[in-house]
């Protein structure tokens, strides 16, 4: 999972995958106007009119967030860390044994006519796993950005913000499923940089961003930057978004760096293309989709004598696709499925068993219910992961399983 990326130095130092309710710039509610008949009936003084105008443009401050907790168990597998024994799927968050804590999420937002900010902090295991790339080790700031609206169409965001790639998000209060997909877990979580949000006509939207390498959030120690872009089309029924990332994630070697040793290696540039869509098909049925391809080129290596050379070799990559059908059965209960295929090539990530050429794949099916009582949502969830190679332990024996069933029972309160 993402908080373990620091140990995955096989091909990349830091790997890079809709938006949380605090992710996007807060949108001011448009002021209501009276119709012609009402205007004829009411005669307002100049002082009253001025007070109404001031009220309409008054900045607002909001505090929102969530807490979550869960029970997790597997069937026929021993209880220890995912990458070493396969007790839980090698995806983010819902992977701790027994009764476990997720996180406390507090989101403060100040929305003005032209300017504002979002301060989003997280506490607990899920929060620490989400903000793993902090140099200070604090790992509590999920988002911290200010924004300036040039006009109604263009907004500049500056700071740390959740990724705009992918279907799922960090906050369990926004996701339908409590456990997360491989596509989400092994794509980006957070970015720090500058992002332009553009709202076009007829529901077209776009984003342009220049950022630190993905999930390096407090400052940039590697002196390379990542470019991001999005173009989308939205409507009352839903929308479709095409997303891109490109950039070197771990920097370039410097021959004057005295700490370099023969055999040291760095990855080349990363490219990721991602498509996300979600539409309501009638009043009861919804369908979502996410597909993504990420590739990292061979980078540099240090030869005997300290010379820096091109590493050569083929790039590594992953490809995945996930479907999200959901049916609403009543005002309080809905049932949804996630069906995902995720494939690794050339040792891109050691998440599960790979063959001798570093290739492997997994299919996972997650069936979840959402039962809502006020701000509280209960999420019972049954998940099955099936890998192409042996990846999971059978109780206390050696790795000899390709199938891992797991159970999650979660409670999420949103306020």
CATH superfamily: Porin
For the biggest β-sheet, the strand order reads 1-2-3-4-5-6-7-8-9-11-12-15-16-17-18-21
CATH topology: Porin
Order of helices and strands: HHEHEEHEEHEEEEEEEEEEEEEEEE
Number of domains: 1
Q: What is the strand content?
A: over 45%
So what's the CATH class? Mainly Beta
Instruction: Kindly report the oligomeric state of this protein.
Output: single chain
Query: Shape from CA axes?
Result: globular
Average of pLDDT? 85
SS summary, helix count = 5
Largest sheet entry: 16 strands, antiparallel, barrel
Query: Approximately how much helix is present in the residues?
Result: under 10%
* Cα-atom radius of gyration: 23 Å
Uncertain runs: 1-54
- The secondary structure category is mainly beta
CA-to-CA gap between the ends? 28 Å
CATH architecture descriptor text? Beta Barrel
Count of strand segments: 21
Describe this structure in words.
The chain is mostly beta strands and 415 residues long. The chain has one domain (2-16, 61-414): Porin. Helix content is 7%, strand content 47%. It has five helices and 21 strands. The chain has helices spanning 36-41, 46-56, 82-85, 125-130, 182-185; strands at residues 60-74, 98-111, 115-123, 141-149, 154-162, 190-199, 204-211, 226-235, 238-248, 265-266, 269-281, 285-296, 300-302, 308-310, 316-328, 333-345, 360-373, 376-387, 392-393, 399-401, 403-414. The chain has a 16-stranded antiparallel barrel. Mean pLDDT is 85; it is low at 1-54.
């Amino acid at each position: 999972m993402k908080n373990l990326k620091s140990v995955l130095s096989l091909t990349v130092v830091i790997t890079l995958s809709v938006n949380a309710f605090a992710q996007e710039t807060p949108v001011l509610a448009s002021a209501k106007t009276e119709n012609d008949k009402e205007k004829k009936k009411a005669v307002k003084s100049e002082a009253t009119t001025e007070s109404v105008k001031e009220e309409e443009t008054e900045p607002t401050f909001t505090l929102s967030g969530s807490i979550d907790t869960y029970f997790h168990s597997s069937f026929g597998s021993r209880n220890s860390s995912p990458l070493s024994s396969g007790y839980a799927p090698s995806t983010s968050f819902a992977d701790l044994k027994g009764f476990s804590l997720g996180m406390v999420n507090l989101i403060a937002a100040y929305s003005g006519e032209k300017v504002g900010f979002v301060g989003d902090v997280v506490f607990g295991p899920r929060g620490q796993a989400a903000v793993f790339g902090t140099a200070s080790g604090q790992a509590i700031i999920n988002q911290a950005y200010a924004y300036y609206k040039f006009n109604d169409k263009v907004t500049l965001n500056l700071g740390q913000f959740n990724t705009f790639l992918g279907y799922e998000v960090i906050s369990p209060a926004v996701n339908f499923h409590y456990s997360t997909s491989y596509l989400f877990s092994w794509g980006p979580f957070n970015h720090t940089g500058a992002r332009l949000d553009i709202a076009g006509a007829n529901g077209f939207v776009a984003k342009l961003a220049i950022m630190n390498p993905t999930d390096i959030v407090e400052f940039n120690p590697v002196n390379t930057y990542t470019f991001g872009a999005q173009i989308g089309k939205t409507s009352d029924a839903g929308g479709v978004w095409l997303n891109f990332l490109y950039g070197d994630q771990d920097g370039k070697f410097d021959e004057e760096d005295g700490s370099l040793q023969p055999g040291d290696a760095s990855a080349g540039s990363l490219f990721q293309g991602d498509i996300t869509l979600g539409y309501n098909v009638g009043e009861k049925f919804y369908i979502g989709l996410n597909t993504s391809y990420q590739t990292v080129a061979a980078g540099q290596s240090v030869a005997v004598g300290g010379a820096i050379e091109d590493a050569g070799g083929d790039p590594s990559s992953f490809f995945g696709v996930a479907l999200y059908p959901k049916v609403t059965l009543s005002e309080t209960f809905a049932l949804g499925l996630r069906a995902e295929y995720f494939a690794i090539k050339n040792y891109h990530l050691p998440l599960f068993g790979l063959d001798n050429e570093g290739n492997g794949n997994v299919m996972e099916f997650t069936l979840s219910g959402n039962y809502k009582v006020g701000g509280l949502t209960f999420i019972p969830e049954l998940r099955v992961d099936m890998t192409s190679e042996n990846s999971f332990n059978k109780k206390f024996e050696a790795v000899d399983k390709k199938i891992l069933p797991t159970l999650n029972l979660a409670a999420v309160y949103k306020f």
